[in-house]
Structures are given as C-alpha cells and as structure tokens.
Design a protein that fits this description.
This protein is of the alpha+beta class and about 475 residues long. The protein is built from 11 helices and 12 strands. The strands form 3 sheets. The protein has a 5-stranded antiparallel β-sheet, with helices on both faces. A 5-stranded mixed β-sheet has the order 7-9-10-12-11, with helices on one face. Strands 6-8 form a two-stranded antiparallel sheet. Strand 11 and strand 12 form a beta hairpin. Helix 7 runs parallel beside helix 11. It is rod-shaped, with a radius of gyration of 53 Å. It starts with a helix and ends with a strand.
Amino acid sequence: MSFYLVAASTIHLVGDSLFEDTVRTGITNVTELADALSERIERESADDFYQRLLSAAQMNGGRLLVVDMDGKVQFDTFDEQCGTRLGLSEVYTLLRGEKGSDYGFHLMDGGGREQAPSILDPITRRDISRIWVGSFTAALFSGEARIGALVMIVPVQDTVDSLTFVQDRMTGIFALALAAVLIFAYMISRIVTRPIAELSAGIQRMSEGDYQHRVHVPGRGEMAQLAAAFNQMSEQVHNLDEARNQFVSNASHELKTPLATIKILVESMIYQDDMPSELRQEFLGDINREIDRLSSVVGDLLTLVHIDSHKLRLRREMMVLADTVRESVKRLTPLAKKRGQEIVAKIDAECEMFADPGKLAQVCYNIIENAIKYTPDGGTIAVTLTRGGRDAVLEISDTGVGIPQEDLPHVFDRFYRVDKARSRDTGGTGLGLSIVQQIIRLHAGSVTVQSEPGKGTTFIVQLPVK
C-alpha cells in the first residue's frame, strides 16, 4: 500500500510537470500569435490572412481557428468547421471577457492515430481510437475592442503516451514488489505461525489428556520461551496427574487394608460360635486398632485436602516455640522409655513468634514420634532448639537405621515409605511428614532432612521468629 501511494504520487507529479510545460508553451505561442494576427485581421484580405494562418499553423505543428464574438468559426486551417459554432468552454471564457487566454484538453478523433496501449486497458476500458489534444485560446483585438478569439489546437498525445509508459512501468514494478512482499510475508508467516501451530497442537493434545507431549521451538525468542513455559507446565501437569493417580491408589490401599482385616476378624467372630472369650477379646482389640488406623488415615487425608484447597487457616498468636518443644518431649518421653530410648532436649533460645501453636505442636510431635519409631531400642533422640539470625532452628536427630540417599528426596512425598514392612508394623500412614512440610510452608519456613544409613537421621526445621 505504501509503494502504491508513492507510485501514484510520482505519476501525478510527473504528469503535472509535463502538462505545466505544455500549457506554458501553448499559452505563450497562442498569445504571441494572437497579438501578431490582431494587427492584420482587418487590414489584409481574407485569402492573405488565411495563408498567413496556414503558415503559422504549420510552424506551430497544430490547427488554428479564428472565432468571432458569437462563437462562430470564421477561419479553420483544416477547413472543417467554418461557419459552425465552436462549443469549447475555453473559447467562451474569452468571449465573455473573463480571461485574456485560456486552455483545455479534449479527446478527439485521431484520424487513424491511436493512443499507446497500456497494460491497464482491460481494467480502465479506455477508447484508444481517440487522441488527446490541447486547446489554447487567446483574445483577438482591434484597437481596444475584443473582436474574437484565436484557437490553437495541438496534439498532446505524446505527453499522454509518456505518462502511460511511466504508469505501466510503475505498475509492473508495483506488481513485482507486491509479489515479492506476498512471498516474503508468506515465508515470515510460516516461520511465525509454525511454532504457534505447534503450540496449538500441543494444547489440543494436552486437553485430550496427553500430558507427556512436548513442543519443540528452536531459537531463543519469545516463542521459544513460550514453548519452554508450555513444556514446563505440561511437565507439572503430568507430575500432578501421576501424583493424583498415585495418591488415589495409595489412599485406596491404606483404607482397603484395615477394612479387609476388620472384615476377616468380624467374619471369624460371626462364624465361630464357640470362639474362646480370650480369642474374641484379642480379635476385638485388633479391630479396635484397625479402626484407630482408619481414623488416623482419614484424619491425615482430610488435613491434606484442607491444605491443598487452601481452606486450612492458621490460628496465629504470639507463642514461645521452646514451650511447644518441651511439651512434645514431655508427652513422648514415656513412649521412648518403653523402648529403652532417651530423649535429650537442649533449648538454647526461647524463640518467641507469631504462629499457630497447635499446628507447630503437631510438627514437633510428628517428627519426634517418627524418630522414636525408627530408632532401635536403647537409642537416643536429640532435640535442639537454637536461634539462627532471624530464624528459629529446630533439629531432631536420632541414632536409627538412617535413610538411603536415593530415598531422601521422597521422604516428604505422600504415602512414601523407605521400609514398607517396618512402617506397617509401626502403624504409620505415610502422610505425617507430608503434613509436617505443608504446615511449615504455611508458616513461611522450611524443613530439610540429612541422613546416613546406619548412623541416623536429622530433621532441620527453620521458622521465622519475631
């Protein structure tokens, strides 16, 4: 469009320039000729004046006509319109005294000559059998009185043909430029839209459940960054989908196992009428423990659901973390003594903070209880609370079996167990550490684990203090 506007403006400027020269030359010639003929029109005979008119027409390369004040042609070097009224507006502006000279351009019969053909003729449908002529007029005077007008008609078709040639050249260049732009635009659009199409296809496949699909967009531009972000999102959605499926599977298994045990025990009691009272009491105790286990799993699941749905609200208040740690140690000391274990608590800072006392008590209790469960009889659990900069640092170490290096990244995963058989024996649900991690994150803290097989495990909790 820009090229078209430039081309049209260029043709217009060239045309104006060419026709301004033609008009200037024509007006000058007809004015000079009218001045010369005005002195002779009444002094010479009609034949002598006509001969002089023919000679002047040949010199100017055109046709001369003399028109009286009524608009009738008195002399015509072509002897075609003598006695007829000449209907040219540029003549009547002179006869009315509005101007001393004037001009106009008209299409006339070419007498066998045609306009130069143009590549735009099929569109414009112009009549090339007629040619353009310029009509230049000047007033004739007798003394001070205006007695008529001199009309000089000269062909300007050469000038029009030059403009047609320029127009055709510019049209050809425009067509080539347009074709080049379209091809270039198509190539660019293909380059630009290919990654968009690939991203669109990836989104479509992802909406159909194919979370493993990845898109590849080379380069480092915005589209490549968008593709990388999409791939990262796909990876996260894939991981979430797998985690959801694994979570459902693990939750179903955790609920199914105690339910199956309860069913077996209840059926045994139903179909054994003569069951000894001691055995019946033992079965009832087992059922009670399995129900407690079911209640624990359901409670932990509900806690995680509340955390995931952002419905868990912290009831913050000013609290002293050291008091919470001491209370947890006090409550779990009897359990440790049953196994001949010792809990050694070292409180170096009180760590006053704005937090949820109940949730942090759950954190301390779960980690210390976990340490007791996985520490052999006669082992030691060390609980240390210190101040590190603007954080409270709680370390809980044990002398247990430790955790293999390949299992450390997964200890906070839901239902993950390093030793499934031992976990079943201890009654763990595999959700405690996941809940611990979520609670600490809600408090803008962090929890990490360090372990070495055979030497024990250390959990490190960092929480912002006042």
